[in-house]
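Data availability (excerpt). The following record was deposited with the supplementary files.
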Amino acid sequence: MSSSNTGSNDRRALLSGLGVAAVAGVALGSSRAEAKKKSAFEPRRHAEDAWMDALPGTHRVFIDTDDAAGASNALLYATNILNAQASGYQGKDADMAIVVCLRHASTPLGYDDAMWAKYGATFGALMRGAGPGGGAAAGAETAPPTKNAQATALGNAAKRGVQFAICNAATTLMAGMIARQAGTKAEDVHDELVAHLVPNGRMVPAGVIAVTRAQEYGYSFLYAAG
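Predicted structure:
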């Protein structure tokens, strides 16, 4: 066999080998991509959380709070986000799906003035950091609050579409405290509180779980510290 024929055969073998390698590489890449796709974590969906996915808007934000000062800051953050969407992006309030979570010591801000007029002493003590007994914290004012201090800000935010996730775990705890103090049924107090939420207020099983579920639905997370 001539050297030229040998060279041609070698080139054909090389090209053939490269073709097989290329096909094998594509197949391997496809197999890995498919395996990755199959193993990707997808959280289970629950009917209790479906409202998060139903909120209109092209951007999602969840702002967590656990005390009164944090709740006040969260309302400022929500307002700033809405204003910046309008001024910086020529957008509108409807572009934003914003949820503010009222949990732990900020939970009482999720109830309207009627509940504050009735149970303000308990709410105020809890928000000032009193112990489980509900007594006033050291140095706290003696006159109990009778109105929701953030009612106006909450109402204004609600008019712009901001939603409020209110912790049922904390609500249940407070209902029990109030019932023991008043000699009534905790279930009745709980039902009363739930019936008197602020505008756009919604009870969630627990504020801490709402925080995690919101992220599963694509909400950007902010924590508003006091």
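Summary of structural features: The CA atoms of residues 3 and 172 lie 91 Å apart.
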